[in-house]
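task queued by scheduler; priority normal; single chain, no ligands, no partner chains; default sampling; output format set to structure tokens
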Amino acid sequence: MGVRCPAGKLRNRIHGKVQQEGIVVQAIFHLPTLVEPHRLWASLRRAGLLTQAELENLEAFQGNAAAVVAAVNELTASGRLTAFQREILLAGEGEHLCLGQYRIRDRLGAGGMGQVYLAEHVVMDRLVALKVIADRFLSDAEAMRRFRREVRIAARLNHPNIVQAHDAAEAGGRHFLVMEYVKGVQLDCLLNELGPLPEPLACRLMHQAALALQHAADQGLTHGDIKPANMLVTKDSTLKVLDFGLARWIRSSREGDNSPIGSDDETVAGTPDFLSPEVARDPRLADIRSDLYSLGCTFYFALSGQPPYPSGSWPEALLRHQKEAIPDVQACRTDVSEECCAIVMRLMAKSPGDRFQTPKELALALEDLNRSYEPAAYHIPSSVWPGSVQVQSQASAPTLPSIKPPPRSEKAPKWRPWYSLVRALRSIASASFIGSFIVLVTIAVLCCKRA
């Protein structure tokens, strides 16, 4: 609901505050410290989240930070603003919520190149994921080269099991990639909730990953960092592969090195728990079979709940992938079929020549296995999924009605200069019971002096 109450009642909605004769004194300990009123007002204007009418309704309070906070809290409670937007606005950093035609709604995660945010296109009213390159990389020519490479790669991939790229842009000195927003969870997070997956569900997900890799291979690309954290799973058991940022052109002995994006990079790229032995020895040996090895490790992880070689430092993990025997899934899961175990073992063969040679070959093997499962075996419990994101358009969102500013007496109260002291004490108290008690006692003493 909107803020539809007189100024005094509105101020009473501010959690934890104390009010005396229209002068609002906050005693909030779980919110950011109030910034200067002019900075808070500027934050609201620069964010571009409120309509002109809403800003006009708040204009009378632009000198009263606490009253503006109350209104922001009301808009958050009604769903007009998200909790993430509220925190950024109250910190006086509203301009960071605006990236060109996109308004940031929440933070989804982070990658090697920067942060990933949930955003909304203000014209198309569409939710997207924005991958924003970190500021520290903007002056790094190599990092910018990698970012541009990721944009070019993502633009070439169009498949239902790959997170789609919509756009790439720059706004205010910040470079970002606009991607499809998938309402799902990472595969590793899914296992944290469910434990090791049933064989039918694991096979279905790996079959979809194989289809995604085959599409990339058809474009002459490999992924380079296949792992559970780079796979999203939706409610209907659809899997989507994300982060092709480490992909590179596949070297072709017939066509030579035709890569415009620097496939001569000899840096080891990938995650040790899922990295193939040949890539650990020489990154230039990477091909689609290296991705299949990493997919085999991911398959093992989905069935067992742990990586194939789960202990030790990353050099030890790389060495174990090269030297130790392939672990048998049935050693920890006796209910997994022989056929499924054979597929995992072949994917994780030490020599690339002993593995499936293409993702399509793997997909065909999994299709045969999937035919033997009941459809109900693919079900994922609804308790795994967090509440879906609700986007409220400006047309239907509750608006902020006009609020009269609090009445001001011609003579300022004698105790008003103490307001700054109270705010300082509130900051020092910092979210403790004792601190809040001190603030209340101080206010009581000041009120007694006035009386």
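post-processing summary
- Residues 1-32, 248-268, 387-420 have pLDDT under 50 and may be disordered.
- The radius of gyration is 28 Å.
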